Amino acid sequence: LTFGLPGIDQYDPDEETLFQQDGATSHTANVSMGLLRLAFPGRLISKNGDIPWPPRSPDLTAPDFFLWGYLKCKVFEENAPRTKEDLKERIRQEINNIPLQMLQNAMGGFHLRLQQCVQNQGRHLTGTIFKK
Question: How far apart are CA 117 and CA 60, in angstroms?
């Protein structure tokens, strides 16, 4: 949270901004939830949050359906980082090298999945996840 909240503040979140996180123990600890509830009152999508955790939620977050897999491939494409500092630097470099069009495409897909989730009343995104 000491890293995330200042980063979010750079984007000037307003009273309509929602925050979604997974159910990792460190994310749902009382101290974490307390800080997030202060930052996003009534707008926290989380296990035990203000808004229930949606089904198939990894497909509703751009980092899960796109970013982490892409970064892993790029960071380890050549020689693997040898230190934690090297790993962090490689991740920063690869994030900065993501083409704008690729990010726009990923976010367009994100919006499509959100619409499908609403249309399916929260059920599986059959055409997206279980492609025939």
Answer: 9
pLDDT band at 3 (very low <50, low <70, confident <90, very high): low
Angle (CA) 38-11-13 rounded to 5° is 35
How many residues can be counted in the chain? 132
Going by their DSSP bridges, the two strands 44-45 and 19-20 should be labelled as: parallel
User: What is the CA 102 to chain-centroid distance, rounded?
Assistant: 16
Residue 15: phi and psi, rounded to 5, are -70, -5
| DSSP sequence for 54-117 | PTTGGGG-HIIIIIHHHHHHHHTSSSPP-SHHHHHHHHHHHHHTS-HHHHHHHHHHHHHHHHHH
Read off the pLDDT of residues 63-91 as tens digits, 9 standing for 90 and up: 666 788 888 999 998 888 999 999 999 99
Per-residue pLDDT, 131: 45
d(CA 108, CA 98): 16
- How sure is the predictor about 127, in pLDDT bands with cuts at 50, 70 and 90? low
User: 51 forms bridges with which residues in the sheet?
Assistant: 45
